[in-house]
Write a structure and sequence with these properties.
By secondary structure, the chain is α/β, with parallel strands linked by helices. It folds into 2 domains: 327 residues, TIM Barrel, CATH 3.20.20.140; 116 residues, no CATH class. The strands form 7 sheets. Strands 1, 2, 3, 4, 5, 19, 24, 25 and 26 form a 9-stranded mixed beta sheet that branches.
Length: 573
């Protein structure tokens, strides 16, 4: 009789602790790792992992599956990239708590901030909830491929408590703050992993209105944080423009210190403030050393926009002649654009409409920042390959070259436009960020920006580019796995996963490291109401297990649904 449910044999174990990799076996019984090293007993299933990496499942703490999780059991494409746990509700946007009269506002907020089609949300959301606890119950009732944790979004909370005053960023009263704090406390007791908020001008509704939380004052944010403190659980998450770095850092420190709860903040290099990220991460490290836990969520590459005829953005979206054909089916639009008279008309009228609230719409003619993405995609391109540089060498205008690029592959081609983390025209800064003691990988935005950004592949890029392929500045694979597994899990209080050791949850990846890589993103129309979204597959993931059950085999879903809602902090058995 077999002694284990599963034994993965002879792999190179990268165990998530940062310790040197070593050859060994991993045994699993009843969804828990029972032995690591040399396993003598047999398994009901045995996998030969010779020549492959064996890692914990990846934990992605910055996603936006808040809508998709209510209608879809597969949290793809995250599950295609070795991710076994996702955390959603980031950036202060989500769908609970909600009164019926606020449903439309929350859809507009999610559509504008995260570029998720309103039509898909209107059709897909069942609205079988009002409180955050009700929402968790709906999520808990559905099987899913990977584990899911949810956070309480400030935008929904503020609208629920303050109504129109909350939508227009009016200051919260003492009574408002007390009510929000109590609802935050209850949400955590019901199973929310934490509370999130947004303080960035980039976040607007689909109507162009700023997010309700933009101007929330210190007493409001600290008061809500103290609600989590009263529950004795939960984490805090913030995205900010850091226009006043010292003020914001002091505010976030106070939120964490006065509540006793850890905080994580989105961190990236902005081109106008190239070195501000160092100040932020250094301050987080100092605070953590003093007992106030603060972490920065950083990206695995530049935060980049995808421009193309299938997506939300393209270099010609502002031209009146293009707008006349913008709603035509892709094949018909491509046919029209190939006509010389249409081409001339579009290229003659390329003024940028700066009134559009669409994220990235002001950048669509920054040809010095644009590159043909390619297949496989190149995420650290040579500046000499920019559209502007190529156009200068060939003697045509950048707009003409971009025009030809978007028409290639029957209009399915994408142009890549790196924005954040690209001030020096390389990714050296990303390597510094990833190596910082106060940083953990995040910001993949899985489930969001479905027509603009496809950064859900960050976990694959982390290992493939930084651990294997980058010509210079490669990082130890042990560190990368530790950051993406145990580091992220600990950041949100999930201390039962992210490590290959007895007693930990049996979330595992078996990876053909030499084959590991990302494929080019593609548009599919599989959201409710036929809504489009960007998806991106990966190669090299031989097996992915959630609680000891295989969910992906050689890049294909097994159809198994061992995942579920994770309610609150977790500890290893």
């Amino acid at each position: 009789m077999a002694e284990h449910d599963l034994v993965v044999r002879g792999g190179t174990l990268v165990d998530g602790t940062g310790a040197p990799s070593r050859s060994g076996d991993v045994a699993v019984t009843d969804g828990v790792i029972t032995a690591v090293g040399s396993v003598d007993g047999t398994g009901k299933r045995e996998i030969d992992a010779d020549g492959a990496l064996v890692t914990p499942g990846f934990v992605d703490i910055h996603t936006h599956y808040d809508g998709q999780a209510t209608w879809d059991s597969a949290l793809a494409p995250s599950s295609w990239h070795g991710v076994t746990t996702v955390v959603m509700g980031n950036c202060g946007v989500g769908f609970a708590p909600v009164a019926p009269h606020n449903r439309e506002r929350l859809i507009q907020l999610m559509e504008g901030v995260e570029d998720i089609p309103g039509t898909a949300l209107h059709e897909g959301l069942s609205w079988e909830w009002e409180t955050f606890g009700d929402y968790l119950d709906v999520l808990d009732a559905s099987p899913r491929d990977i584990d899911l944790g949810a956070q309480l979004p400030h935008g929904a909370l503020r609208l629920h408590v303050m109504g129109e005053r909350g939508a227009t960023q009016e200051p919260a009263t003492a009574d408002d703050i007390a009510e929000m704090a109590e609802m935050a406390r209850q949400a955590v007791l019901d199973g929310a992993l934490g509370f999130t908020t947004s303080r960035t001008l980039n976040h607007r509704t689909s109507l162009g209105e700023y997010t309700p939380t933009l101007k929330a004052e210190a007493d409001e944010l600290i008061g809500i944080a103290q609600g989590l403190g009263a529950a004795g659980a939960g984490v805090l998450q913030v995205v900010s423009d850091f226009l006043d770095v010292e003020f914001e850092l002091d505010l976030f420190h106070r939120m964490a210190k006065e509540s006793g709860r850890p905080i994580s903040v989105s961190i990236a290099q902005a081109p106008q403030r190239k070195d501000s990220w160092r100040v932020q991460l250094d301050r987080f490290a100092e605070s953590t050393a003093e007992g106030v836990t603060m972490r920065g969520q950083v990206a695995a590459r530049a935060v980049g926009l995808l421009l193309g005829l299938q997506g939300t953005l393209n270099p010609f979206m502002h031209a009146p002649a293009y707008r006349e054909i913008a709603d035509l089916p892709l094949a018909e639009r491509v046919g029209r654009m190939r006509r010389s008279e249409v081409r001339a008309a579009i290229l003659a009228e390329l003024e940028v409409d700066k009134s559009l609230p669409v994220l990235g719409s002001r950048l669509v003619q920054k040809y010095e920042l644009m590159f043909e993405l390619g297949d496989p995609p190149v995420y650290e391109p040579d500046p000499a390959d920019s559209i502007a540089a190529k156009a200068a060498r060939t003697g045509i205008s950048p707009a003409e070259l971009a025009y030809d690029m978007v028409l290639a592959n029957d209009g399915k081609n994408f142009i890549y436009l790196p924005t954040l983390n690209w001030a020096d025209k390389n990714l050296d800064v990303v390597g510094e960020q990833l190596s910082h003691s106060a940083a953990v990988p995040g910001l993949s935005d899985g489930g969001a920006h479905v027509g603009t950004i496809c950064d859900v592949s960050f976990p694959t890029t982390l290992l493939e580019w930084w651990g294997r392929d980058r010509p210079r500045g490669r990082l130890p694979i042990e560190m990368l796995v530790a950051k993406q597994c145990r580091g992220t899990a600990e950041t949100v209080g999930l201390n039962d996963r992210g490590v290959l050791a007895p007693g930990y949850k049996a979330d595992l990846n078996v990876i053909d490291f030499e084959r590991l890589g990302v494929r080019a993103p593609e548009i599919v129309h599989d959201l409710p109401a036929g809504g489009r979204r960007l998806l991106q597959k990966a190669d090299g993931y031989k097996h992915t297990f959630v609680s000891g059950t295989e969910i992906m085999a050689d890049g294909e879903s097994t159809g198994a649904t061992p995942g579920g809602l994770v309610r609150g902090a977790q500890t290893a058995g």
